[in-house]
Design brief:
Helix content is 44%, strand content 16%. By secondary structure, it is of the alpha/beta class. The chain has a single domain, classed as NAD(P)-binding Rossmann-like Domain (Rossmann fold, 3-Layer(aba) Sandwich). Strand 1 (11-15), helix 2 (20-31) and strand 2 (35-40) form a beta-alpha-beta unit.
């Protein structure tokens, strides 16, 4: 399969794309020849990220969108589909984290994590699936976590959101596979970003955003007759 040609001109949407893992994924998809739509909440930071993608010679569109809002997601995706007429790849990467003992988690923090990490992926997927059904093709990739496989002290709400995201992924894959739509999850271990606490961990041993982006590239290049449902990524040495 000619990987570069396979993605040329395809439309790829990445949430949480202003920095870290999301920006690395946007850049990787741009290198594949995709027209990339970057979504995040803060427009100024997002536009800087899009310009970074454009400097590679790729087409990049920046749209501010809070994935916690169903109304905002619907309006944003309607704008994307009106502009491009199709959607080939959706990467649900937007995520937040609050950490602490379960009895100390505020209700507002619980809502923010669940609404972003889980509800946001549902909203964005639901917004793009009708177009993918019309195309009878598409790939939805959910950036989950090893925290969605194993709980840890202080991780109650974050783990709950990622366990839920994996359940959503598996069920969507079964709902959509007959229509040529592939749904996959990537579960990284600790990634060196500013997102989560890394106290006591050696940054030299941690995963990099580019490690996750490389798996996204691998997934979207799968032959049509197959898809990889889940990928777990760990550093070679424990941080």
């Amino acid at each position: 399969m000619s990987t570069a040609k396979a993605s040329t001109g395809q439309v790829a949407i990445v949430t949480g794309a202003s920095r870290g893992i999301g920006l690395a994924i946007a850049e990787e998809l741009a290198r594949l020849g995709c027209r990339v739509v970057l979504l995040a909440r803060h427009s100024q930071e997002l536009e800087k990220a899009a310009e970074r993608v454009r400097r590679q010679g790729a087409e990049a569109t920046a749209l501010a969108c809070d994935v916690q809002s169903s109304t905002e997601v619907q309006a944003t995706f309607a704008k994307i589909l009106a502009q491009f007429g199709r959607a080939d790849v959706l990467v649900n990467n937007a995520g937040v984290g609050t950490f602490g003992s379960v009895h100390e988690i505020a209700d507002a923090d619980w809502d923010a994590v669940i609404n972003t990490n889980l509800r946001g992926a549902f909203y964005c997927s639901k917004a793009v699936i009708p177009q993918m059904l019309r195309q009878r093709s598409g790939h939805i990739i959910n950036i989950a976590s090893l925290a969605g496989k194993n709980g840890f002290a202080g991780g109650s709400v974050y783990c709950a959101s990622k366990f839920g995201l994996l359940g959503l992924t598996y069920s969507m894959a079964e709902d959509l596979r007959a229509y040529g739509i592939r749904v996959s999850a990537i579960c990284p271990g600790s990634v060196l970003t500013e997102f989560s606490p890394h106290a006591g961990k050696d940054p030299k041993r941690m995963l990099r955003p580019q490690d996750v982006a490389g798996i996204v590239r691998f997934l979207v290049q799968q032959p049509e007759q197959s898809f990889v449902s889940e990928v777990l990524i760990r550093p070679t040495q424990k941080p």
